[in-house]
Design a protein that fits this description.
alpha/beta; Dihydrodipicolinate Reductase, domain 2; 2 domains; six-stranded parallel beta sheet; binds 1,4-dihydronicotinamide adenine dinucleotide
């Protein structure tokens, strides 16, 4: 914790959504983030509220979001709800005078992104951050710093992938109707990284393609389980993206940044830890199973950065405009996938 934040009051937080990721954020907020405490939780599901009460002893539980917002003394909300709910829930929180952390993506709809930005502009004293967690990973931060220091000359190309382990249950398939498809759900992280690492260039044209390697049932949502894309920016900068739901070995997220004087690579070996196994199959590492194990520390750093920004009244580097731009590019990728044509931005 920053020493000057010792005197700022402890931030009282309410969490909304206690699903796959919401539970992780709730655990962090309850016991691992200095300067914040989890005072309330909201979910429409009784079983999730019971979990919050029994596992974390969250003192105040709400089935209704408006009731949580009315909780006396609440400073900030964490929205870890289905993406389709994000814009309206952010706007409601701002109107109730709360700081907002909301999971990515901001929205699947550009008009909604702009409505959120307009509402946030009416409350300049409130912080709003969208959870692009990779920016808070130590290796990505190191890469960013080295690029700023000129370590690879002028960066002109990013390759970035988000590849999930194959899930034989096809659990994610039922979310495909609301997730916006593979590019808005997964590549949105890579899009944000590419913009950040290349110095926020303007996108000018995208082209995307994809295939259903395993999950044929994605056809009903016009989605793919493996997608690739190229994004051209102005000034000759380029990004290429790959997203997959079908990796055999585990969660394999990596990024490569090429510059005029060198190349940086983050995460090229997605090993679980430093253990190397040598046996009749050869010499190998095990792989991280999911995004959570890979970014566990980053999730904590992300929350801590948000909480400190509020307590120290510091401006957040990651803005709503960044989140809108990631959605804008993600929508263009989806359009290109469906039309099989390049899309101009
Ligand atoms: P989930 O479906 O497991 O959880 C959604 C939660 O929202 C559930 O607890 C559900 O009860 C609750 N909910 C639904 N309707 C609600 C309402 N009207 N009011 C309050 N709560 C409501 O989904 P998951 O995987 O946890 O994803 C949530 C968000 O987190 C999504 O936007 C997703 O894109 C994002 N996410 C981000 C990741 C990252 O790497 N940063 C990784 C995984 C998810």
């Amino acid at each position: 914790m920053n020493p000057s934040s010792h005197h700022a009051p402890i931030l009282k937080v309410g969490i909304v959504g206690l699903g796959r990721l919401g539970r992780r954020h709730a655990e962090n907020l309850m016991s691992r983030v200095a300067g914040a405490t989890l005072v309330a939780a909201c979910s429409p599901l009784q079983s999730e509220l019971e979990w919050a009460r029994d596992t974390l002893q969250v003192p105040h539980l709400y089935e209704d979001y408006a009731a949580l917002l009315a909780h006396d003394g609440l400073d900030a909300v964490f929205l870890v709800t289905p993406t389709s709910l994000h814009p309206q829930q952010i706007i409601q929180a701002l109107q109730a005078g709360k700081h907002v952390f909301c999971e990515k993506p901001l929205s699947l709809d550009l008009e909604d992104c702009r409505r959120v930005e307009a509402e946030a502009a009416r409350h300049p004293q409130l912080q709003v951050m969208i959870g692009f967690v990779r920016r808070f990973d130590a290796s990505y931060q190191d890469a960013y710093k080295k690029i700023q220091q000129g370590a690879i000359g002028s960066p002109f190309m990013v390759y970035s992938q988000t590849c999930d382990q194959y899930d034989p249950d096809g659990f994610f398939v039922k979310f495909a109707a609301t997730s916006g498809g593979i590019f808005l759900d997964c590549s949105v992280h890579d899009i944000d990284l590419a913009r950040w690492l290349l110095g926020n260039p303007q996108p000018v044209r995208v082209y995307a393609s994809g295939t259903r390697a395993i999950h044929q049932d994605l056809q009903q949502f016009q989605d793919v389980d493996n997608g690739v894309a190229i994004c051209e920016f102005d000034n000759g900068k380029l990004a290429t993206f790959y997203a997959s739901r079908t990796m055999a070995h585990g969660h394999d997220t990596m990024t490569e940044i090429t510059g005029t004087a060198g190349r940086l690579t983050v995460g090229s070996n997605p090993r679980k830890n430093r253990l190397e196994i040598a046996d009749a199959h050869g010499v190998r590492n095990e792989c991280v199973p999911s995004f959570f194990e890979r970014f566990e520390d980053a999730f904590l750093t992300e929350i801590t950065s948000f909480v400190e920004a509020i307590r120290l009244r510091r401006k957040l580097e990651l803005t709503l405009a960044d989140a809108t731009e990631a959605t804008r590019i993600g929508i263009a990728l989806r359009e290109s996938l469906l039309s099989k044509q390049p899309v101009l931005l």
